[in-house]
Structures are given as structure tokens and as C-alpha cells.
Specification:
- The complex is a heterodimer of chains A (199) and B (147).
- Chain A is 73% helix and 0% strand.
- By secondary structure, chain A is mainly α.
- The longest helix of chain A is centred in the C-terminal third of the chain and has 28 residues, at 168-195.
- Chain A is elongated.
- In chain B, helix 1 packs parallel to helix 3 and helix 2 (19-31) packs across helix 3 (33-49).
- Chain B has 147 residues and is mainly alpha-helical.
- Chain B is flat and about 70 Å long.
- In chain B, a hairpin with a 2-residue loop joins strand 2 (107-110) and strand 3 (113-117).
- Chain B has a 3-stranded antiparallel beta sheet.
- The chains are: A mainly alpha (199), B mainly alpha (147).
């Protein structure tokens, strides 16, 4: 099945081949999970949303328009579901949403991806990850979603606009705003590290 | 000579990179500390957004739970409310077309989201059909799109 496109796999699934949907899951699970995790900032919440999204995608497969690409369609469903859940406060009611204050003090297990054997780099990368996480959390949910659909899910500007039902110009503005916010956070983190200051 | 803004746009958005950008980026980065710094920041941000410890992607057990749910939960009754995407699917047109004609459709906004009542859309379609018939009868209908 490796040689089949996503769109061909979905058509196969529509014709009763569940293994084709399993293949789609394997292909897209990482991007989907990271998008949801960065949106809701909680592993359990992200896994729950991921199940909901895959359930909806499997259920909606009959409506899928074969002319369109699968990945933007998948993330359109994911973004809608995620924003609806966050808007409705379901996560907050369940005590799942990690508050910004918790995020700031939670120093667990955020270490470097690139230099795992170097303790100095590991600490630096952990702090960078935390700084980026805080900056990301300070963005409005829709701006955060647009930013993550572009940066994590790998959608184009046009695909993000279509997925979120907003004009491309708005996407560009939000991406720019998100980058600036994250760059400023990096700058502050660098200044803090160079000055050897404490939080 | 390309402006730094063009180089930086390419750093953030692969789609904006043309042949000139690809051919000249290494040289420009070597001579422009500011652009080189922005590339480093972009790399750091992307690395921080990637998978970290404790954030491993779920395995196939998650999909097993989805399969179980699909078997256990029969399809729900059709909702009377539709989202932008659902309406586009229903009308068999691109979402962008629905978005572009939003001011003509019976819609309402709640909490910043647009929703359509299926029954209102059905009435709207009937009205459009009525107008179409009248225009056809008057011989003023232009050829529509085939797809």
C-alpha cells in the first residue's frame, strides 16, 4: 500500500478496505497528534481529540471529494473539532486543559531533540521549548491554530485559509504575528540565558 | 538584488522560494547576519514545536479504539445545523465559493462561527429555483458551470 496516494487509500476505505484507513493513520498520526497537542497542551486531551477527529474522518469518508487533497481535508476536520472543543470549554470542565501558570512551572521532561548527550544543550533546548510553549499559549486560539496548521501540519497558506474558513490575507497576518511573538520569546530567553538570570 | 524581506519570506515559507532564492540564499546568509539570525530562530522554533520527550505519537492502539467506537456507535441522525464545510459538501461546491457568497445565504453567527439551518437553506434553494424558472421562462438565463 506504500505506493498509493492518500486520496487512493481513502477511496479504497470507502469501498470497505479498513486496512487502507489504518495506513492513512500511520502516515498522518504524528502531524495530527502534534497539532492537537500544541493546541490543547495536554497529552490526554490531545489523544481524546485525535480519536474524535479520526472517528469523524472515517464517518465522513463518504462525503470526501476525490479531487481535493486528503491532508488539508483531514486538518480542516481537526481544526474545526479542536476549536469547537476549546470554545465550548469541555476541556476546562474536565480539568484537562493545562493552564498557562501550570505550564510555566512545569519543568518536566522537555529536553533537546538534537543533542541528547550534551547536558548544557539539553537544558538550553528545554528552556527554549518552554519559552516557545508559553509564547504559543499566549496567542488567540484561532491564530495559534493557523500558525500550527502551517508550521506543524505543513499546510500551505491557501490550505490553512480554506481549512479555517478565513481569507488568505488574514492567514498571512496571523502567521506573521505568531512568528514575531515566538521570536520575541526566543530573544528574551537568549537574553536571560546570557545574563545567567533566574525566572 | 533581492530585498532582505524576500530572503526572510523564503526562510519561513518554502512556497515563496523561487529559483533565484534557492540559488542565492547561501551567499546572502553568509553576508547578512540579520537574515542568518532569523533563519536560526526559525530553526529553533521548528525544533521546539517538534516532538519532545513525553510527547511520543500514539501507536496503533489509538486506532483500535476508533474502530471499536465506529462499530459501537451507529451514525447519528442528521443535524439540522450545518457548518460552512458541510454546506459546501451538500451544495457540491468549493468552500471558498460558499464563503464568497456568504452575504446571499441565510446564515447566522454565534460565538464567531457561521452556521446554516438546513431548512433555511432548503427554502433558499427553492427560492433560487423559482427565480431560475422565471428567468428561464423570460429567456434571460446564461449558461452555468458544468461541474
Amino acid at each position: 500500500m506504500d505506493e498509493l496516494t492518500d486520496e487512493e487509500l481513502l477511496v479504497l476505505y470507502k469501498h470497505g478496505r479498513n486496512d487502507a484507513f489504518d495506513q492513512l493513520y500511520l502516515r498522518h498520526r504524528q502531524g495530527l497528534f502534534l497539532y492537537l497537542l500544541r493546541m490543547c497542551r495536554d497529552r490526554l486531551g490531545a489523544e481524546e481529540m485525535m480519536q474524535d477527529v479520526l472517528f469523524k474522518v472515517a464517518r465522513s469518508a463518504g462525503d470526501y471529494e476525490p479531487r481535493g487533497r486528503f491532508r488539508p481535508w483531514l486538518f480542516r476536520i481537526a481544526a474545526n473539532h479542536c476549536l469547537n472543543v476549546l470554545d465550548s470549554g469541555d476541556q476546562k470542565r474536565q480539568g484537562r486543559l493545562v493552564l498557562l501558570s501550570d505550564f510555566e512551572t512545569r519543568g518536566d521532561a522537555r529536553v533537546a531533540l538534537t543533542t541528547p548527550d550534551d547536558p548544557a544543550h539539553r537544558v538550553e533546548a528545554t528552556e527554549t521549548r518552554e519559552a516557545i510553549g508559553r509564547a504559543l499559549a499566549s496567542l488567540d486560539e484561532r491564530q495559534r491554530s493557523a500558525f500550527l496548521l502551517f508550521e506543524v501540519a505543513g499546510l500551505s497558506g491557501n490550505e490553512v485559509a480554506s481549512a479555517m474558513g478565513i481569507p488568505v490575507g488574514t492567514v498571512k497576518t496571523w502567521l506573521h504575528r505568531g512568528r514575531e511573538r515566538l521570536r520575541r520569546a526566543l530573544g528574551r530567553e537568549r537574553t536571560r540565558a546570557e545574563g545567567g538570570g533566574t525566572r | 538584488m533581492m530585498d532582505c524581506a524576500v530572503w526572510r519570506a523564503g526562510v519561513w515559507d518554502p512556497e515563496s522560494r523561487d529559483d533565484r532564492w534557492t540559488a542565492g540564499w547561501d551567499a546572502h546568509r553568509g553576508s547578512c547576519a540579520s537574515c542568518a539570525c532569523e533563519e536560526q530562530e526559525a530553526l529553533q522554533i521548528r525544533s521546539a514545536l517538534g516532538e519532545g520527550p513525553g510527547e511520543e505519537t500514539p501507536g496503533t492502539e489509538l486506532m483500535d479504539r476508533v474502530w471499536t467506537r465506529l462499530v459501537e456507535q451507529p451514525p447519528e441522525a442528521q443535524s439540522d445545523l450545518m457548518t460552512l464545510e458541510e454546506l459546501a459538501r451538500w451544495l457540491q461546491v468549493p468552500v471558498d465559493d460558499v464563503y464568497a457568497h456568504l452575504d446571499q445565504l441565510p446564515a447566522f453567527e454565534f460565538a464567531g462561527r457561521v452556521r446554516f439551518r438546513r431548512s433555511a437553506i432548503e427554502s433558499w434553494i427553492e427560492e433560487r429555483e423559482r427565480q431560475w424558472r422565471m428567468q428561464s421562462a423570460a429567456g434571460v438565463v446564461a449558461g452555468g458551470r458544468r461541474s
